[in-house]
Here is the input.
Amino acid sequence: MTCSVMWFRRDLRLGDNPALLEAAASAETVLPLFVFDPRLWDPAGSPRQAYLLASIKALRDQIGGLVVRWGDPAHEVERVVAEVEASSVHIAADYDPYGHPRDVEVKQRLEGREVPLARVGSPYAVAPGRVLNQQGNAYQVFTPFSKVWRDHGWRAPAETRHVSWDHSLESVDLPAVRVPGGMTVPVAGEEAALTKWRAFLDGGLATYDVDRNRPDLDGTSRMSVHLKWGEIHPRTMLADLAQSDAPRKAVDRYRTELAWREFYADVLARRPDSARDYYRPELAAMTYDDPGEQFEAWKDGRTGFPIVDAGMRQLRAEGWMHNRVRMIVASFLVKDLHIEWHHGARHFLDWLVDGDIASNNHGWQWVAGSGTDAAPYFRVFNPIDQGKKFDPQGVYIKRYVAELRDCPLDELHQPHDPIVDHAEERREALARYEAVRRA
Ligand SMILES: Cc1cc2nc3c(=O)[nH]c(=O)nc-3n(C[C@H](O)[C@H](O)[C@H](O)COP(=O)(O)OP(=O)(O)OC[C@H]3O[C@@H](n4cnc5c(N)ncnc54)[C@H](O)[C@@H]3O)c2cc1C
Here is the structure.
């Protein structure tokens, strides 16, 4: 009996999965494989590890078994291929700075055995590198990218077919992970993703364009974690959006947010160095402060600025933070505390369940003014005004900052024992910026 291997990575679903369809079409049975790679696993924070484990378990339950291995994928995939005498290995392409070269290495190893590594599809509606201007170059600015991305279009969701699974190989035990005390991670798996998505289509989507900036209203979809692990494909979501009766403005806005995810993946695939380095190197020369006690206060949600502290505490409670608040806390770290963006990006990746190198590190570079199509550095978020505007009744602040629950609204957004003076630090940030600009 012929057997192919479906190597799952960031595509932990059975529906709308072209790589799986091809694996099933290539052989009589399909062996489902997941390899825990210590180089990805060890630096991931425990919330992301816990979520991934839950997602793996959900996939294993759906399939009725999953071969789990631990170690260097180049070695482990080859070993599984030899053990089961597989005729091919199937994956969705990975464009990340680590995943892409890893897949090249696996491909070369398998070629030695004359077993092809078939790359079909990717975690994106339009694969990185496809959206180009008329000169054949990639876009550096989001708006033209998003227009061409939309014109380019995407395939319809892949059909779901019966798969004969091969369960002949032994698995290693799944590791145990304890999430930080008090944290609840979202329910994982394809079914949970589809349930949440359908509820959003029938509910929150209708007012998404107006509510998406309001952390007090929970007006967003919270689909990022499911997209991160491929429990749902954006193609499925885009097809549903096209059928939706929700107001056009709301649907367009949601589609545009999905395009941001694709834009950052495109930028990172082109410039893998921008995961760590400044996309625009000018701001690397600016004077920054070393992370010390103030950085610890920021991480703990003890800055004295209510909206900042609420956001940092939401991160620790849920492994997720509202997008508006991600921007506010990031701006506070870089422009009020003068700490380089990558310290904050690392902290986010330690805690976010949806932590994604492209969206996170480019989200940070956007705020820090060093990214592609970034907010200009001199635009400094005022955490007090942002709180008043986007959490007008203080519902969000009171949800996470227990000591302010009885605070009257007219005092709520003001700093309480602040670690810095915002007006002073704003001037300092602009002075540092001017110095680097003139240099
Ligand atoms: C400093 C900073 C760090 C961030 N880190 C991450 C991260 O690690 N992982 C992550 O998925 N997103 C990240 N984002 C983007 C955004 O904050 C989250 O995608 C969003 O908050 C997820 O919530 P949601 O699913 O309810 O979003 P919704 O508003 O419902 O948006 C729908 C989907 O669109 C995509 N999206 C929305 N906004 C953005 C954006 N600005 N950039 C890229 N994609 C977007 C996401 O896939 C999201 O799930 C970051 C943003 C900032 C400013």
The radius of gyration is 23 Å.
